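The protein record minuted underneath.
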Amino acid sequence: MLARKAEPGAVGGACRCCMAVGTGALGPFPAAALHDFPYAPQTAAPGSHAPPAGGVPPAADLVLGAAAGCMACVLTNPLEVVKTRLQLQGELRAPGTYPRPYRGVLRAAGAVCRADGLRGLQKGLAAGLLYQGLMNGVRFYCYSCALDAGWTGWPGGTVVAGAVAGAVGAFVGSPAYLVKTHLQAQTLSAVAVGHQHNHESISDAFGSIYRQHGVAGLWRGVSGAVPRVAVGSAAQLATFASAKDWVCQHQWFGEGSWAAVLAGGMVSGVAVAVTMTPFDVVSTRLYNQPVEADGTGKLYRGFLDCFAQISSKEGLLGLYKGIGAVYLRLGPHTVLSLFFWDELRRMVRPQPPPGP
């Protein structure tokens, strides 16, 4: 059973550095005791310092948050595979001029299974787990620093801190996201979309990229990842609380229930998907494009060039390829991350001595 009271060390009912580890791409956000699922900004005064919530030190929370994101990734990675294929389909080609082996989320998932088997839905999982661990760990730490400094107590501070923390995490985890995209795009030639890098494994992918393009090559595409995470993080932080409250006010679900949080996440997910998907498409294209011997992209010169080419050649709707998979992943991944994070914290929290 989840605790029914705010944990010790909470400030204004909010834990010191709780966060749902988001969608694998969004910034951290504070939360109080998990059963309440609040999404309000921290109320600690600027410059104040609160003790670790629930007896769990920040370093442990950092590790547990990253672990929770990895656990959620295992369950939501199939949507990442589908999203990657949809976003690469018809690259730089006008609508109606190319074959479409992937049509919608469900039919695309079926196409992946037919081509690669059920295991195909977990392509790139190892790289995805590495990305989740790196990105979530770093952004959790950065957000905790912002909280300790009292920056989240200022108006808009939570949104800014979450966006910046997510952007830093995205930069650190960029090499893993690069390899994940390459591996998820690989499939049989009959249904292949985008450039096929043909890596044999995650280690082969890292080694091949490093040998050909050096350390800098591992961060190819990061110019699309940072704005993607920052925009998605800000949109989620700005909409999740109000969406959850709206669901409860309309009495769809009980206050503080898992169903209310999931419904709030799906409602909020509309705003997040609409704002983030164009950046997500650009990021996927930059990561997956073929490159010259000197490491420059063969298709896109950078973020703005990629954005402009997609708009002009595929139309504005080209920037929203894969939006269905993006949307369907947001709510469940957030709730799963919260659940795993809370359970892990309960396992490591010091237990009180038995009574007399």
